[in-house]
Protein: ATP synthase subunit a
Organism: Vibrio stylophorae
Amino acid sequence: MAATGAPGTPQEYIKHHLSHLNLEHVGLVENGGFWNINLDSMFFSVLCGFVFIWLFASVAKKATPGVPGKLQCFVEMIIEFVDGSVKDIFHGRSAVVAPLALTVFVWIFLMNLMDLIPVDFIPYAAQLMGIPYLRVVPTADVNITMSMSLGVFFLIIFFSIKIKGIKGFAKELTLQPFNHWAFMPINLILELVTLISKPVSLGLRLFGNLYAGELIFILIAGLLPFAYQWLLSVPWALFHILIIFLQAFIFMILTIVYLAQAAEDH
């Protein structure tokens, strides 16, 4: 950064760009307390959510039965794509799964898309306003990705109990894969590991990929002269577009798959 007080060495530059603006920096908690919140991740995730709601709501209000405009056609393609994925995987009846899948896909895609903004663009403007730290990619924050995966996890439990009942869900945890009372403790351990691994892998996969992508952009900006940064940043950005889409798609597909498995009545 070229602003006053900006980190001078590459190590300081990288450390600065990997630091979140949280409640400790604004004086609301002390010494990184348990209830500390990354304000930048919360702000940009909510902002992307509002952009998603505003965009789709405005298209829905202006939708025409005739030849659609370019934006309406684009939104309809996304909805049809998500709806087709849900119909192929989830064979039960639910008014929640398709809207949830659409929300997950578009929201995560928009949050991932923030990674294509030059690493110094928004943080430099924020520093001019007196904001010391600012990270703009919410999905590069493990708190955001794990919060989303925990939401999916609670829905898995809800669907399991709703479809199978508490007794049926308990049997699923204790009588599989070995259908004998003597193996109930072993079955419970195996099934709990399988159940808990779903939200953990879901959240960490998204976080790991986006954190790595953001880190590469920061390394390019911090270690290379400005005149040569585009030689690596532009090719990486073009490749990163694929990662941005794939990670949103994978999160959506796994969400549908996990809910479909939870809705299966054995």
In short: The chain has eight helices and no strands.
